[in-house]
Every structure is written in C-alpha cells, then in structure tokens.
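Long-time lurker. I teach an intro course on protein structure, and each term I like to show students one example going from raw sequence to a predicted 3D structure in token notation. This year I'd like something fresh instead of my usual example. Would anyone be willing to generate the tokens for the chain below so I can use it in lecture? Attribution to the forum is fine with me.
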Amino acid sequence: GAPCCGITGGEKFMNDVKFSSVVELSRALQAKEVSAVELAKAYLERIEAHKDLNCFLDVRPEVTLAQAQAADKRIAEGKAGRLTGIPIAHKDIFVTRDWASTAASKMLKGYMSPFDAAVVRKLAESGMVTLGKLNCDEFAMGSANENSAYGKVFNPWDPKAVPGGSSGGSASCVAAGLAPIATATDTGGSIREPAAFTGITGVKPTYGRPSRLGMIAFASSLDTAGLMAHSVEDIAWVLGDMVGFEPWDSTSENMPAEDFTRDLEKGVKGTRIGVPRAWFAKSLDPEVASAIEKVIAEYRAQGAEIVDIDLPNADLGVSVYYVVACAEASSNLSRFDGVRYGYRAAEYEDIQDMIKKSRNEGLGAEPKRRILIGTYVLSHGYYDAYYIKAQKVRRLIAREFDQAFEKVDAILSPVTVSTAYDFGAKSDPVAAYLGDLYTVPASLAGLPCMSMPCGIHSNGRPIGVQLTCARFNEAKMLGIAQAWQNVTDWHKRHPNGF
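-- Reply from a regular --
Happy to contribute to a lecture. Here you go:
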C-alpha cells in the first residue's frame, strides 16, 4: 500500500483527507484551512463510493451536516476544543437518538433510541461529528463479521478475507479511509482482532473506564468500549474525551480526568516488557511470529528489558470466556421477547407462542447458539459444575496477570494465530472460538490492551501485535506503542484501491 499523505489545504486536502490523522485534521480545522462541513461532505462521499464494503448500516447526511455546521459555528466563535469538527463513526452496538440502533440484528431493525449512549454523548459534547452507524456481528457475537443480519463486512485489503469481528465495520471503515477514527467494543477481543486483520491500531481500555451506559449488552462483566484509528497518537487524543464516570452505570469507574498523550514521547528505556514465550508455540503462523520477534528486537534496541514470563492458566481462557460470556448473554438477551420493543412475529396463538416465534425469527444462529450454551451452564445441576468453576478459573487468570505486572510494565504477545482468514474458512463454531486464544485472557482480567500493525504477510494481509498493561495504565501502554510507531510506518500502510 501507499504511505500516508500529509495535508496542505485546498483541493489537495480533499484528495488526501481519506488517510489524514485526527491530529492533522484538528490542526487544519483550527487553522481554518478546511471547514467541518467540507470535511463531513468529503467523508460522506467516500462512504457512498465504497458502499460495497458494507461497513455502514445507517448514514443520514442531513444529521451529519447539521452537526458539522454546529462545529463550524463553535470554531468561528472561538469556543472549539481540539476535537471539534473531527468526523467519527460509531459501532451499531451504541444506541443513538438520530440513527437507528440495531446491534446488526433483525430483532432491533429500525429501532430508534430515546437517548445517546454515554460514549456517543461525550464525544458529541467534545464537538465530534458522527458519520453514521457501523456494521458488526449480531449483538457483538463473532470473530469474523459473518454474523450480521445485514450482510458481512468485507476487508479492504482482500475481499475474500474476513475483517475480523465483532467490530469488523469499525475496522474496515478506518482501514479504507471512510472515517479517521471509529468507536468499537471488545468483549473477548473484538477490537484487537479486527484491528490486526485490517492493519490499524485498536485500543480496549480498562473494563469500567469507558461507561457501558447505552451499549447494547452482550456480556456485562466483559463488554468494553474502545477506539480504532491508524495511529496510537490519534487514539490518545480522543480517549480522554470518551472515558469518564457515569452515575447511572453501576460498572463505571469514578476516576479523575487524564491526559492519555502524556507518555507518547517518553520512550521505552528501562521499561520491562514481558513475553509469554509459551504463546509462540501454539500453532502460530511462522511469519506472524517473525514479525513479532522484530518488534521485540526493536524494543530491546531502544533500551527496554525483555523478560520471559509464564501465564500457565491463560490457556483455559477460551473455555472460561465462552461459559461466562454465554451465561451473561443468556441473561441479557432475555429482554428481547417481542413484548415491549423490537421484532414481533406476525402470527402467533398466545403470548408464549409469540415470544418463541419472535425470538426464533428475530435472532440469528450465533446469538441462539450462545443463549442456549448460557442457559445450559446456568441451569440447575450445571451451575456449580460450569459457571462457578469458570468464575474461579477467571480469578486465577486475573491473579496471574497481577503477579506478572509486579515484574513487568507491559506484556507483548500475538493477537491472533494467523492473518485474516477467508470467509467460510471457520464454519465450525469451535474453530472460530479457538481463534480468540490470545485475546480473551486480558478481557477476563479487565485489563487495558491493544493491537497495532507490525508487518504484512506474504499473502498480502496485515499482521498485528498485542500489548497489555495493568489496570488503568492506558497512558503507559500508549507510550510503549508510540515508541514502535515512531520508528516504523506499518500504521501508515493502506490497502490498494482506497
């Protein structure tokens, strides 16, 4: 792919806007080289031109342009912040007043929320302009974006390849230059895996740091809002405006505001980076392993100390995750019964028949599968054998991470065993679930983690590397990642044709 272009204003600016960073766009807006309306129009045109990627589920130009006009007014009045006028797109798992909120399910087709999710509201208050709602796996359940009721999302690097899931729409949208940044959610790897598969940077903060208020729930003890962009710097700029305490959210962490850009130029000299060597033996693609070894070598060259660590129970993460997540999904999705809102079957005999048919017709195969697994592990006779045991092992995994972070500042590991695979290659659900091997342990422990690009495979598809830090150490994690992006240009590579 071609390297990223800077921006200089005028016609050239409109040509280059597709891969301009949030930081570049902010400076151009503040310098009045371009207006928020011009910027919004440029992205809306690109979204229309690349409809075949199927990234967006709902685009309403009139609402977007009204937000852009309001941003221009703030800029003209000198009341703008650094994010005022910057376009953003939201995963369709966050409810929005002005766009339909469907969680990519037939069950919620056309649903209009009476309020904005906390994350959406906070970013709107900072002046960001919403471009629309992004496709995803139904109710955020999946690793390939093959499970959307509105069709799969395509990977701009290769239309035969999955973009990763569940945040595939967010990943493809950013990778193809249809938005400079997008929100996403990560329950067991749904930010990091698609970021790796599409060659962009994706960050999952500490669980509870961004509020879950207005996120359509899949697994309440795991769901975490995050961001996808090309660079670490862009995410650091936006993250501070996205996180924050919400009194209406019982899982929201009450912490002071933080500048996530503060460690970006700190470097890694003296930083201790842990590497779980056992993870490199698990059917890891040799080219992926080689690319990650280069990251390790670069950090060592910059003065970081590389420490081999052991996370013996992390191997059990997938089993634990699919017990806990499915149990919580079974509970959360029971609200979709056709009674109060959402899809209702056209013909039924009584209320029980109506609920049964509404769920059967409104939900796709993957949500049904997870609801059945969850209902089973919560049922009498199996609750202790599966659910309670899974929670105990979850605690063991979290403790292992805590012990590791007493010795190291960050953990570096693979994100996935391979690059993006072809559509249909993992039709067996268990094979698909095992793809989350490297991402679910940190999710179970509620840790901040991220994926950043570190190479391109001989098959032409991007490779990602994962960084994980202790709870509430997002700034440190972003600083370590920036040290890699300062000396490499993988995050500036873009798919051909876009």
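Some talking points for your students: The longest strand covers residues 449-456. The radius of gyration is 21 Å.
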